[in-house]
Each structure stands twice: as C-alpha cells, then as structure tokens.
Amino acid sequence: MNNLLELLLNPPTNLSLTTILLFSYLLGILHGITPDEHTWPITFSYAIGKYSTKGGMKAGFLFSLGFTLQRSFLTTIGYLGLAYFYQKYNLDGPVYIVVGIVMAIAGSYILKGKYLHIPIDELLRRRKSAQTENIRDIPLKMTIIHGLIAGFGFGAYASIITFILAPQVGSLYFAPLPGMFFGLGTMTMQIILGAFFGNLMRFKGLNEEQMKSLASKAAGRTLYYGGIAFTIAGLLILGFPIIDNLSIPTGLIIPNLDAIDIGFLLVISVVGIIGVYSIIKSYLEFKRS
Q: Which end of the chain is more exposed for a tag (fewer CB within 10 A), N or C?
C-alpha cells in the first residue's frame, strides 16, 4: 500500500496516457476523501441543507463539476508551460477570500433573503419563532461557482497533475484529460461524502417542512460564518504570508493529512465547529419553539 502511495505521489516519467489518467483518477480519489479546505467545507454546507442522501449527492456532484472544469483548464496550461505563476505566486490568500465572500453571500441569501448583512445583527435582533422566519431554499447551482473558484486553489495534488502528469500526455488535445480524471476522482468521493453529510440532518420527530427549515438554517449559518472564517484566513495570509507556511507534521505521507496547517484548521473550523454548532443550534431552536 505504501509503495502504491509513493508511486502515485511521485510518478515516474514516460508514462502511457492510460496510466496517466489512472493515476489522475486515483489522486482525485485521495483528494476527495481527505479533509481538503477547497472541497469539504463547501460540500458539507450545501449537503446538510438538502437533508437527504439524494440532495447531498447532488451537492457533491455539482460542486465537483465546476471543480473538474477548472482542473481540466489547469492541466491544459500545465501542458503548455503556462502554469509557472503558481510556482511564483502564492494564491491561497486571494482564493480563500473569494471563496469566503461567495460562501457568505450564499449564506446571507438563505438566512436573510438578501446578499449581505452585518454579523452583529444576529445578536441584536429579537428572537423570532423558527416557524415565522423566512428561510430560503439552498441554491445548489451556486456550488458549481464554488467549484470553479475553489479549483484555483493549489496544493500537492494539483502540483502532481499540473507539473508532472500533464506535460507527459503528448498532445494538446489530451492536455485537459488529467485534470478531468482528477476531477472525476474527486467527484466520486464528494458524492459519497455529500450523501453522508446530507443524512446528518435526518432528525426524528420533525415533519418535512420543519426538516427543510432546520436544514436550510443550519446550512445558511455554516456558509455565512464559514465564509467569514475563510475571508479572515485569506486576509491574514495576504498580510502575513508566513502563516501559510506554518505547519505541524503528522508523520503521514498523504497530502491533506501530512500536516496540521491553516488549510486543515479551516476544515476543522468550518465543518467541525461552525457546521456542527449550526446544526445543534438550529435543532435546539426548533425544540424550544
């Protein structure tokens, strides 16, 4: 198993096109199943809002569709030798900021029916009955935009498909394929994870309408406050670039699990803290009302 991982993470040269596409797909599987800040928070946020296996799978599919399109473009410019700017410039800060703003916009729309609001108003406004709040449905089509934006994030997996695998395909016509198969691998796992996340919202004792409102509110809060967390992280990286290089090694060789860094902390913060808190808070509000 370790030998296979070593081979995937350090591919040799002179590979056949079939082997390149197989490697790309398997790397996408690893990327999709490990806690990546460019995938998990988005899929989680939208999947819990659909509160079902089917809805969660659709969220994972649509997000990964946008991500796959961007990755196909990325390996194309990698083949052409135009992806050098990823080696010269750190785009994590700008990508986090844009992803965060889009998340916050989507969350604000779900919760308020408008595109931005000041966080303090959540504390100042009077409490309303959960049944009287006008919570919007989850705009799943937004996940495609999230996928396109998140695809500009660059990590170890992207480096392998862009700078090692893509240049070996032999023709510009084949250049998008490593990115596409990488995206399909990511999509496979995001659909599975989306199904799992979607089922987290299946609470007993609630009817369909209550379940829909509860799930939408939890998703809206996760997107909104998760978006703020992403934006703050992006601004901190722009102001203090060294933050993006700080990490604590875990001893594992799998990217996204090999170190505790700002990306890993974003996943834990958005999914493990903001997301879980939003679910619990929304559920308790229903119980009280």
A: N
